[in-house]
Amino acid sequence: MQKEYDFVIVGSGLGGLACANILALEGFSVVVLEKNHQIGGHLQVYSRGKSIFDTGVHYVGSLDEGENLYQFFKYFGILDKLKMKRMDNDKFDVIRFQDGSEYDYAQGFDHFKATLINYFPEEKTAIDTYCAKIQEVCDRFPLYNLRISGENYQMDGDVVGLNAHDFIASITDNERLRNVLAGSNLLYAGVRDKTPFYVHALIMKSYLSGSYKFIDGGSQIAIQMSKAIRVHGGEIYKYKKVVSANYNDEGRITEVVLENGETFKGKQFISNVHPSVTIDIFGADRFLNVYKNRVQGLENSISTFLVHLTFYEKSFKYLNYNIYQHHIEDVWGGIDYDQETWPQTYFICTPYISKTGEYADSMSVMTYMNASETEKWAGTFSTVAEPGTRDAEYEQFKKDKEAKVLGRLEEVFPGISEKVKAIHSATPLTFRDYIGNKDGSLYGVLKNSNSPTRTQINTKTRIPNLHLTGQNISMHGILGVTVSAFVTCFPFVDKDKLIQKVKNA
């Protein structure tokens, strides 16, 4: 007899791993199926030469003692196994402009406020108002504060329609301060007329509550989560690409079917894959047209061009902070970039590698790139699990883009080119192939303050035993995805007791 699992989870991104961990801890039999050679979704790392590169997680917040992610990781049993380095207390992020001026983000609300008021003494009221609003909005999201109130533990209808750009503009006329406050909006691919303030607030509060880098790469979260799942009897399999499902007469899924014909039986199914890809896998005819059209018509956030530089030994000092560099005055403008002056805005970080200590082994640079730029190669596919090749023109395209990014970096760090031993890059196609969405979108469905409910996706679907989890459900990011996993699991557990367990961890 083939084993029937309580839960079959499709996709091993953090959402799938977190659901598996929660459910295995509650005594359910769980299996996670991953199509790639590496688990973890955006937590994956890869190595070139002897350097380790993160694909998605460059730093993480809310990890000071007692903060929400700290508690979640404690509950999962992985906190004491993660190797982390706390970022500079006085500046974990630096917002930098074309004229060379830099503005530090300090950790903790009081320190953050004091630092900003130092730059803008006449704007104390605006800065106080901004910080108070962040705390007020975040307080309206119960689960982010390890609380449950009624059914609405994800978000408060009153705050989801407030636009981030508009709110910041409403508290000050000082253009530079507005740009400094929104200066790290690459963290959520901010769009001036769409990004809700709650997205900005939850992310800012998270980083102000303890910003850390993962020593030797972020894949350790996935590794420790998978170990914890197995300890509690869960199973995880790689190279298992789910392509369809079989149903019984009541319209319930009985099993998923893999590309090789293998099947996995289950009572409940959770998809950690992008909702529009989930519809393709589980059968478009099983979903109502109105739902299908809405989900498949949702706009995704923009994709990215990610450049990894490897340095010659002891040539570039390690930076215990990140830089958000803006070559244009308007920090919201980089997303609608102009080809001639691209990249206009980008994120710079140096991973902390234990063996090189005070020197950086490498640098990661992320900037915006529309999927349309790689459209001509959209028919190609290439991962370690399914090796494919792309033509010489594609390789040249990447080289040209790398050269442009390096040219820009010279403006920030004169002479950096001479310190670079090797350069590698990833395009929207790389993210599409490894993450399994349709366009390489970095943060999934784009949240929209103009129609907030339209971009909200319920964890329950019309198929009675199919549920959704991951970055498209409530929020992206390590914290957002972890919260989403709890929401996905609530129908199967006593949610009050579960959150109490997290608090008591």
Describe what you observe in this structure.
The protein has 505 residues and is α/β, with parallel strands linked by helices. The protein folds into three domains: 4-83 and 216-298 and 445-504, FAD/NAD(P)-binding domain, CATH 3.50.50; 107-209, no CATH class; 302-442, no CATH class. The chain is 31% helix and 19% strand. Strands 1, 2, 9, 10, 11, 12 and 18 form a seven-stranded mixed β-sheet that branches. The chain has a seven-stranded mixed β-sheet with strand order 7-6-14-15-16-13-17. Strands 3-4 form a two-stranded antiparallel sheet. The model has no long low-confidence stretch (mean pLDDT 93). It comes from Dyadobacter fanqingshengii. Residues 14-377 form the Amine oxidase domain. GO terms for molecular function: oxidoreductase activity. Keywords: FAD, Flavoprotein, NAD, NADP, Signal.
CATH topology of the largest domain: FAD/NAD(P)-binding domain
Mind telling me the CATH superfamily name of the largest domain?
FAD/NAD(P)-binding domain
What's the total number of strands? 18
Indicate the overall shape. globular
CATH architecture label name of the largest domain: 3-Layer(bba) Sandwich
Helix content: 25-40%
Low-confidence stretches: none
Taking the alpha carbons of the first and last residues, their distance comes to 38 Å
- Amount of beta strand: 15-25%
Q: What's the CATH first level of the largest domain?
A: Alpha Beta
Number of helices: 14
GO molecular function, one term: oxidoreductase activity
Protein name: NAD(P)/FAD-dependent oxidoreductase
Keywords: FAD, Flavoprotein, NAD, NADP, Signal
Pfam families: Amino_oxidase
